[in-house]
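Data availability (excerpt). The following record was deposited with the supplementary files.
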Amino acid sequence: MSIELTPETKDMLNKSDEERIEYINKEYWIDYPIAQNILDKMEDIYKYGYGQIRYISALLVGSSNNGKTSLLKQFIKKHPPYDYNIEGERPEWVTDEFFDKYTGIGRPVIYIISPTEPSETRLYSTILEQLNVPYKSRDTLDSKAKLVEYYLRTLNVRVLIIDEIHNILNGSPAKQKQIMSAIRDLSSKLTMPVILSGVKEALRAINTEDQISSRYRPQYLTKWKMDKNYVSLLATIVGKLPLKEQSTIVNKDDASEILELCNGYIGEIVNLIKAAAIYSIKNGSERVTIKEIRECGFNTLGNVHKTMNLKDI
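Predicted structure:
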């Protein structure tokens, strides 16, 4: 199967080896149907959830290294901070009268990682740190809560994303309930949707009470399987590799071996193929075949699980 390189990738072919390796190592978004479907649902939450007292939000569930954070970053990228006080940044609908009612600055989407030491005060501290708001660690819980509410309003935050929500399971059942109740109350007071994300244990995290679990509709990022979508994914990845020869891994046998090595995780698949591509530049083969996949030295989770000897740990 012949794969066409993207125009940007073609432009990289005449660059030095170092520049091409740097290009391969860049993070980039790979679009695929499940991810696009979830992005569309998150976009609906962004457009229609803000200002609603009880809007159904989302809990993004998937294994580690299976694309959750990349998907969230792609969503955040679509809604960057703005400053309408700068004349050049104003959309046409922002008139002078706009500033009589609203502030001209905003961070539409705020992203935080759930604290590994779960508590309400750590949750508020994490949000304040993300907002670059000064506070004192000894401030009372009520004081931090009011600061969070004030700045989320002032900065016109429409969606709060809390990643790795399964971290709250490190706390006692009482602590878990307190944190989830604090998230619910914050969402209700500000009429602001909250999108949660985590591994499958996150489903336990939201089940502290019916009022909380009913707010979050699970969206699953499942592991990849051998089908046309997976083959299309491989072709997309290969099309972003600035290699001078044609790569040949988009066939059933090679694709199946890569899938098994990577346990079906998209993060592993991308990183393995990138490692093979860099190896091919260094050894001069300038293409990714199953030979480069096997020889590049990248330890996939599948390989680690097969070769791991617990006695040696």
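Summary of structural features: Residues 149 and 186 are 7 Å apart (CA to CA).
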